[in-house]
Amino acid sequence: GIKFMKKFKIFIAAFILVFLISSTSNATMPEKIAIGLRFGSSAVSGASFKTSGLVVSNDISNIMLKSGSNYNINLADIYVSQENYQSISQDGIKKDESYFPYSDDLVIFKSASLKANGGNKISKALVITDNNGKNIFATSGSGNIFFTSADFSPVEIFGKKYRGGLKFLKNASSITVVNYLNMEEYLMGVVPNEMSASWNIEALKAQAVAARSFAYSNYSKFTPYGFNLTSDTCSQVYGGYNTENERSNQAVAQTKGIVGYYNGKIAQLIYNASSGGKTESSANVWGGNIPYLIAQNDPYSINNPYQNWSFSMTATEIENVLKSRGKNIGNLVGIRLDEVSPNGYILKITFVGDKSSVTFSKDNIRASLGYSKLKSLYFGVSATYNNTYVFTGNGYGHGVGMSQYGAKTMADAGYNYKSILLFYYPNISLGQI
Length: 433
Prior knowledge:
single chain, about 425 residues, alpha+beta, eight-stranded antiparallel beta sheet, 9 helices, about 15% helix, about 35% strand, disordered N terminus
C-alpha cells in the first residue's frame, strides 16, 4: 500500500506529502502505460488543465504542490540557482516569491526564477502556473515525472477527463501531452470505444483481453515520441474517463491481467469490425507469417451492418481521387485485380490509365480510394456501360484476427470469451500477465 513518510514546509503549500509506494509491479511487464494525447504536429505551445489539488509524482513519491483546481503548463526560459529550494532562508527572512522549486527527479529541488539572476539558464523549461499566473513548479521536461489530482480523481485537459496523471514532454518549441495511468484503467477507456458497451458481456470480455494483449505487445510502438501508444486508430481508440461504461468496466475487471500467449510471448491480438465471413492472414495483409493470425472461414460475421456494402464511382471521380494522392494516370481505362487471396481478399489492384498506371498492394489498397469507401479488402469491382465502376464487398476493417461483430454473434449464441478468442486466434493460450 501507500505509506506516509514525512512532511515539511514549502511556501506554495502548507505541507509536502511524501509517500512510498510499495512495489507490486510484475517483474517483466509494466503496470502503467503512457498514451500520447497531443504529439508531433498536434503538440501544443501550452495548455490549461484541471486537477483536484495538484500533486507531482515519479512513481515512488507523491508531493503536494497546491490546492485548487485550475493550472497551466507553458514553456519559459528560467534560471536555476545552485542552492536548494526552501521556503525560508537560514536568517529567517522569507525569500522573494519570484522563486519557485525546480526538479527533474523529486529528489533534489533547486530555486528557480524567471529573472536572470546568475543561475544556470534553462531555455524553454516546462513551467506550471496557477490560475493567478503564479509560478508553482518547473522542470526541464527530461525527467520521469507526472501530475495528478491530490485525491487521485481524474485530471481534465482538452475538455476530457482522464484517470491517472499527465506527463508533459518538452520538444524544441512545443509540448507533448501524455496521459500516464495504470494499464487496467487505460483499458476501461478503450473497450467501450472499440465495442458497444451494450453488447453481450462475453464479447466485451473478449475485447478486453484482445485490447490488453494489443497494448502489451505494442508497448514500444511510440517510444521515440516518449510514450507507448496513441489514443486513436493508429493504436486503439482510447476516450478516457468520460467514455467509460459500467458494463465494459466489468468486462475489464473480470478479465484482469489476462492476455493471449504464443510461444511464451504476449500475442498480437489484432481485431477488426467484421471479417465479412472470411478472416484473412496477417501475411496477406501486411506480410510476415504469424501462426495465430491466419485465414479461415468465419460464419459468425455474415449477418451484420457491414455485409453486402457497395458504392459507385465514375472514372472521372476515381481519376481525381488518385490525382489528390499524387497519382496522375490521365484517363482511367480500366481496373485490374492482379492478385486475389484464396479467401477472396484483393491483394493487388491496378488502376490503368492512358497516361500511366498505378498499383496498390495489400493494406494500401483501402487507402487508394479511402477507408470509408473501401471498407475491407474482401470486395469485387465491375464496370458499367456509362464509365462507372461499382464496388461491392463484405466486412469492415483489415479482416485479420477477431471480428468484433463475430464475437458478438458467438457470445449471443452462448460462447464464452475464451472460446471466442481461441476461435479467432487459433494456437494461442490464455494466461495471466
